[in-house]
Design a protein that fits this description.
The protein is an alpha/beta fold. It is built from ten helices and seven strands. It folds into two domains: 41 residues, no CATH class; 190 residues, Rossmann fold (3-Layer(aba) Sandwich).
Length: 232
């Protein structure tokens, strides 16, 4: 019976092969979600080794950070765009957990990230969450937590206002669009804690900045940032 089941699975995979979410090539029998070639050759930033990396510099003079990080470089039409599209819009939320594990492995090599107490994903408004069915940043946070030995705090930072899409806005317009959008429901829990704030992609950084400004009102709070990708 097991042999027949194996043949059937092989036959189905020939007719409907599973594709790599990054390069769209067929996955081998022992591969899941992302092919081995992509896992090793996607455009890693190695920002965990650079204290003054591009993401960190983006927040200089805006919010005080312990450290900042992005796993990959994002380029239009590239493999990371394919990957993020499958993740966010095709319901492949398990990609977020996998990428969180990969990022977490890198961040364990950085003492600052090893001192994180809570990982907080950038929240979606409840209407957007209902439409999408999951928060992509929360999936990434879960994968990170498995490697960093930190707890995910996904119900404390809330998005009180449903904002317009940010895609075609300037940096200033994006920042204005995010003012007073986020609230912290239980700030006492975060006093004197090191928080890792996570999102999927950073472009202008306005969303992360708005979240950070609210979190940094809490006494003694230290803030770091991590994202899946940095859009050049």
């Amino acid at each position: 019976m097991k042999l027949q089941h194996g043949y059937l699975a092989d036959f189905v995979s020939l007719l409907f092969p599973e594709l790599c979410a990054a390069c769209k090539e067929s996955l081998m029998a022992n591969e899941q979600l992302i092919c081995t070639d992509c896992l090793y050759n996607l455009p890693f930033t190695n920002f965990h080794l650079q204290a003054d990396n591009i993401v960190a510099r983006q927040f200089w003079g805006k919010i005080e950070l312990e450290s900042a990080y992005a796993l990959y470089y994002f380029t239009k039409g590239g493999k990371i765009q394919n990957l993020m599209h499958q993740f966010k819009y095709k319901g492949m939320h398990e990609i977020g957990n996998l990428l969180g594990n990969i990022a977490g492995e890198q961040l364990t090599k950085n003492e600052i990230f090893n001192a994180v107490d809570y990982i907080i994903p950038v929240p979606l408004h409840k209407k957007r969450l209902k439409q999408r069915g999951f928060n992509q940043s929360a999936c990434f946070a879960t994968g990170l937590a498995q490697k960093l030995n930190a707890a995910v705090e996904d119900d404390n930072l809330a998005r009180a206002i449903a904002t317009e899409t940010q895609t075609h806005k300037s940096r200033f317009a994006r920042f204005e669009n995010m003012q007073e959008v986020f609230t912290v429901k239980n700030p006492d829990k975060l006093i004197n804690k090191h928080i890792l704030l996570v999102d999927d992609i950073i472009t202008t950084g306005s969303t992360l900045e708005a979240c950070g400004l609210q979190l940094l009102k809490i006494p003694g709070l230290k803030l770091s940032i991590a994202t899946i990708a940095y859009a050049e």
